[in-house]
Amino acid sequence: DSPDILLEFDKVFIDEENVLVIQTARVQKSQVVIKFEGVNSIDDAEKLRNMVLYADRDDFELGENDYFVQDLIGLEVFDVASNVLYGVISDVLQTGANDVYVVKGEKELLIPAISDVIIETDIKNNKMLIKPLVGLFDS
Fold it and tell me: Above 80 in pLDDT, residue 139?
């Protein structure tokens, strides 16, 4: 997603026991500049360099048709009209214009994540219904 999403958080985690509370945050060019409570010097900040920080997924406010990539991986993809199983989502490619779902079945298929194609995404029941555009699977 865009760097702006990081502005929504009050805290991030280094691990289960170490929490960093965000004092201020702003987007500068395509990066987020964050001031953490208790990090008051260059030496303190250097200790955090290259660390992976985590956020609680409950702290994300997802839109109606927004999903975590990890929740899409493994979904079974069916044709909405014929109920034919095309395969399982194995990857999500972020292309800029729209995401593309990589579906592995008899053949590997690339499915654009657009409303004309994706009819329903049902995370709870591990399935996605699609309506392929004419010629989408021609090769």
Answer: no
For residue 73, give Cα distances in angstroms to 68, 70, 76: 9, 5, 9
Round to whole Å and give the CA distance between 35 and 1: 21
Nearest to 56 by CA among 99, 3, 20, 2: 20
Q: How many CB atoms lie within 10 A of CB 67?
A: 16
Decide if 89 contacts 102 (C-beta within 8 A).
Answer: yes
pLDDT tens digit sequence for 74-115: 999 999 999 999 999 999 998 888 999 999 999 999 999 999
DSSP track, 7-60 = GG-SEEESSSS-EEEEEEEEEETTEEEEEETT--SHHHHHTTTT---B--GGG-
- Answering whether pTM is above 0.85, one says no
Distances 106 to 87, 113, 123 between C-alpha atoms, Å: 7, 20, 23
| CA 89/CA 72 separation, integer angstroms | 7
Secondary structure tally for the chain: helices H, strands E: 2, 9
